[in-house]
Amino acid sequence: MDPSVDPCEDFHEFACGRWNQRQSAQLLQTRTFELKQQILDALYHQDKSESSAMETARKFVDVCQNLDTRQLDKDIQNYAKRLGTVPIIGQTLENGREMPSILDSLELTARYVYERYTYRGNIRTNHQPLALIMTLEPKFTFWGRWNDWPRFDDSRPPYNNCRHFPLSKIYQEADRYVLQDFLFINWIRGLKNAMDTRFKLLCRDRFVAHFYKIADYLLIKYLRNNKNLLPEVKAMAENVRRFFHQILDVNTWLHEKTKAKLKQQLDNVEALIGYGSNALNLTFIDELYEMVTVPQNPTSVELFQFEEQITWNSMDLDVGDSFDIGRYTVAQLNAWNWLGTAIKIPIGYLEPPFFDPDWPLEFNYGLMGATIGHEFTHSFDEQVELPAENVGNDTNEFLEKRQCLVDQFGAVLYPNERLNISLKGDGLAQVKETLADNNGHRVAWLAYHDERQKRYGRNPPKLPGLLEYTNDQIFFLANAQKQCGRLPVVSPDSKWMQFVHPVTRVRINERVKNYEFFATTFKCKLNSTMNPEKKCKVWRRLRRH
Question: Where is the Peptidase M13 C-terminal domain (predicted)?
């Protein structure tokens, strides 16, 4: 915190100021790095005879860490000679977004590869294939945005059936050499991690990603605390769901049959908390990885190909109960919504600094309760089959209210003092996340007050060491501090500006601007920075009595 900052002018700086002075990464990222290292350490501290799958994972880490990374330069050159060229479209080594960093990772051979094996380096002789790739790129870009926001008047979500048709059509239409080069550049992107100088740390990350069932086992058995926290989290999830129901009830712009269908969708969302039923079954885990054979003394490309094979094969590992669907490790410090049918809160996320059953309600609901509300709201990302009556009006009302968030986050300016420019974010690309924040935190706030009233009545206990802050203020502080982080330096082609999550400062500040209860809690004057007169409310807030 930085108490010298007025929370009504810059709540992010008030909540995160001193963290940002000490740290460059978010709290989530910092804790993720620590947890992955603990899992890797646990892998080497167990008896080698305990599990054949663990022994396979150890071999992978050993091979990965001992790989001569300089061999990668030769591998890239050989592949470039065999495949032709590496397309670099509209970028330069000085200000390009991705390819410069990829080439720079090759160190001494970067300029050589660039001049010998790229369209950019041979633009005079390659203008024709360059033009073909430029027509191919937008088609792939368009394909990546196939799943638009849900429309109430669509009967079914355009999910599995429609997804692959445009891609196969592009494959058929594209020149095979152009397509080959286009796919090669994406292959290079995958190899970029292997070129990083922090190679051993990346091997740790790759172990957790590829052998995620083993990582889960190590985390659950050796690293988690032994508190019985699942009942409390499940009770919190149901409390949040109950208030989401009530919020739907008071939204008068929704037709009654539409409300009923949305509430049915909400009730059908399964809250999966903790880990799957086979997570501690070593026999089960050993059988999953029994066909995996780590190559001996591989080149960097051979190791990469082995990892690709594990990735594809692991799609067959999603067996067991419903928690295993989706191929996510429970060491992931996040929650997520699986296709609108389930929210998942893995055991790795149910640890300090994100949750503890012994913590005050303000912390747990500000952190985990808001996360649960956010993920429940994502259940409406996918389209819901609704009755025909009045659906068109519901759709128009919804899109109009949603546009408020699109305009709000799309108007945020990101200054670059060095270039003397200010750039706008992409409010439309971010609207699923900003809407999930907008509603999820409202629901968590209501559920928190309900639970506090049940436990303490009108006189909740003050928190030792934080006596100068009210309980409600601590709720918002806990909520913000999970996302503390610095604003990145922007440039005209900054990729993060198209990310679905706004950057931390924007996400925190723009979110609380829409909460009248935030302004009341911190006594912000009307039209102060954090209390604008116009507020975006897609799902209306209940009045608290």
Answer: 342-538
3: in domain: no
Helix, strand, or coil here: 390? coil
3-state per-residue secondary structure call for 296-321: CCCCHHHHHHHHHHHHHHHHHHCCCC
322 and 431 fall within a common domain: yes
According to the model, what pLDDT value does residue 299 have? Answer: 73
Cis peptide bond N-terminal to 353, omega within 30: yes
**Together in a domain, 488 and 512:** yes
Q: Given this model, what pLDDT does residue 387 score?
A: 56
Whether residues 190 and 263 share a domain: the answer is: no
**Which CATH number belongs to the domain containing residue 258 in this structure?**
3.40.390.10
What pLDDT score does 68 carry?
55
Say yes or no: 278 and 135 in one domain: no
Q: Are residues 335 and 417 in the same domain?
A: yes
Clarify whether residues 364 and 507 are in a common domain. yes
The confidence score (pLDDT) of residue 395 equals 76
The answer to whether residues 518 and 415 belong to one domain is yes
The amino acid present at 344, given as its one-letter code, is K
Only one residue has tokens 């009006």, namely 393
Exposure string of 103-126, with b = 16+ CB inside 10 Å and e = fewer, is bebbeebbeebbeebbbbbeeeeb
pLDDT of amino acid 1? 85
Q: Which residues of the chain have pLDDT under 50?
A: 69-70, 84-109, 119, 141-166, 193-197, 541-545
Shortest CA distance to 376 belongs to which of 261, 498, 245, 208? 245
Cα distances (Å, whole numbers) of residue 313 to 257, 292, 309, 371, 515: 44, 9, 6, 31, 46
Predicted confidence at residue 204, as pLDDT, reads 84
- The per-residue pLDDT for 391 is 58
Is 63 a member of any domain?
A: no
- Output the pLDDT for position 5: 95
Residue 527 placed within a domain: no
In a domain, 542, yes or no: no
Output the pTM of the full model: 0.74
pLDDT of residue 511: 96
Q: What backbone phi and psi angles, to 5 degrees, belong to 73?
A: -55, -45
Please state the length of the chain: 545
Q: Are 110 and 192 in contact (CB under 8 A)?
A: no
- Residue 291 confidence (pLDDT): 83
Domain that holds residue 243: 11-16+24-49+211-522
Task: Give helix 160-173 / helix 127-143 axis angle, nearest 10°.
Answer: 170
- Encoded tokens for 325: 């669907």
The predicted pLDDT at position 90 comes to 37
